[in-house]
Amino acid sequence: NMDSTLHYIHNDSDLSTNSSFSPEEERKSKVQDVVPQALLDQYLSMTDPSRAQTVDNEIAKHCAYSLPGVALTLGRQNWHCLKDTYETLASDMQWKVRRTLAFSIHELAVILGDQLTAGDLVPVFNGFLKDLDEVRIGVLKHLHDFLKLLHLDKRREYLYQLQEFLVTDNSRNWRFRAELAEQLILLLDLYSARDIYDYLRPIAFSLCADKVSSVRWISYKLVSEMVKKLYMASTSTFVVDLMNELVEKFCRCRKWSGRQTFVFICQ
């Protein structure tokens, strides 16, 4: 039944010479046979702005919260039914809706697989990276979970953007920087020794000098894990350079707090 349905949709779309869908073709593109079609249509209509005014002003947020479950139920072969709705929710004016999607985008990536993730989720993910802190934190908390699903070349593109997580709308938002340090520890397994030294090392040293002690404590663990990772790499020059920098920057620091940092990292 599934094959015949997809065959019917494919043949029907071939009849159109125009690249844009008519309303009838738009409806047929959302046809599936996993759940009753009326139930899916009802779910997809939750993004209609008029529903927010007449039913519940947080209906779009409920829709966003349920989307990974709906995607899992329908399967990746029926992602075409949800794609437009997902993009609509990702550009919703309410930050709570975008925040909900940001917290679950890594789960959706697992459901959809690497090809659909690269084509449909990565652009949304990139948009969330530049959003409000309330939305960015959702992406940051599961940064490792999302990046590990990408191909290496695509994953390396985000090395240039990690530095941006040090800047927040509110400088007192220290939990943001603490979460960044936690994620960087996990990200060490995804990148080469050169990438760690060139991109992650400067961020780690910056976090070690943070004004908030909770951020610094996590950063000490980050640097020690970095030393371990570079020590086990085939190229030994990176770990030697890193340890020389630790001695120069912290061990010989004029301030006692810098020398204390060196002791804690050694510990």
What does this structure look like?
By secondary structure, this protein is an all-alpha fold. It has two domains: 118 residues, Leucine-rich Repeat Variant; 95 residues, no CATH class. The protein is 69% helix and 0% strand. The protein is built from 16 helices and no strands. Helix 13 packs antiparallel against helix 14. The radius of gyration is 23 Å and the shape is elongated. About 7% of the residues have low confidence. Keywords: Repeat. InterPro entries: ARM-like, ARM-type_fold, PP2A_Regulatory_Subunit_A.
The name of the CATH architecture of the largest domain is: Alpha Horseshoe
Q: Which structural class best describes the helix and strand composition?
A: mainly alpha
Instruction: Report how far apart the termini are.
Output: 63 Å
Q: State the order of secondary-structure elements, H for helix, E for strand.
A: HHHHHHHHHHHHHHHH
CATH topology of the largest domain: Leucine-rich Repeat Variant
Can you tell me the overall shape?
elongated
Major pleated sheet = none
Number of strands: 0
Report the sheet-strand fraction. Answer: under 5%
